Amino acid sequence: ACSAFSQKSCEECLKNVSCLWCYTNNTCIDYPVRSILPSSSLCSLSNARWGVCWVNFEALIIALAVVAGLILVSITVCCCYCCYCRRRSRSRLDEEEEQLARKREERRLQSLQRKHERKLKHDEIRKKYGLLQDSDNPYSRFENE
């Protein structure tokens, strides 16, 4: 039992994990398992020690709360940042893809237009020199005179 370590030392009391040391009256008591925190009627939090003698229970609770809060805040910030970046990168990719598709279509139309202009120019040259074949019968025989 933890009460056997009363009036000895904090280190001896806290060797047993189920014990709580109180500095106000130098007693070793059973840790109140049913309640998470020991009640002030047993021992004030600033004078209670559990686990190690050099950290009081109040500081331990504050430190654990701060660490848990920092972890939760960092996880929340990371999740929000990742979601925001994904949304932003998706919209950027979509915009870039649309822009590339527009440019590709413009180049294709310009190429078709240049091809048509070349065909017209070549047809004029063929017509000028009498090389333009009859569109009704493209396989007519070419006769030399």
UniProtKB/TrEMBL annotation:
Keyword Transcription regulation: no
GO biological process, one term: protein import into nucleus
Keyword DNA damage attached: no
Transmembrane stretches, start-end: 59-84
Keywords of this entry: Coiled coil, Membrane, Transmembrane, Transmembrane helix
Coiled coil: 86-122
Protein name (Swiss-Prot/TrEMBL): PTTG protein
Organism encoding this protein: Oriolus oriolus (Eurasian golden oriole)
Biological classification of the source: Eukaryota, Metazoa, Chordata, Craniata, Vertebrata
Gene (UniProt): Pttg1ip_0
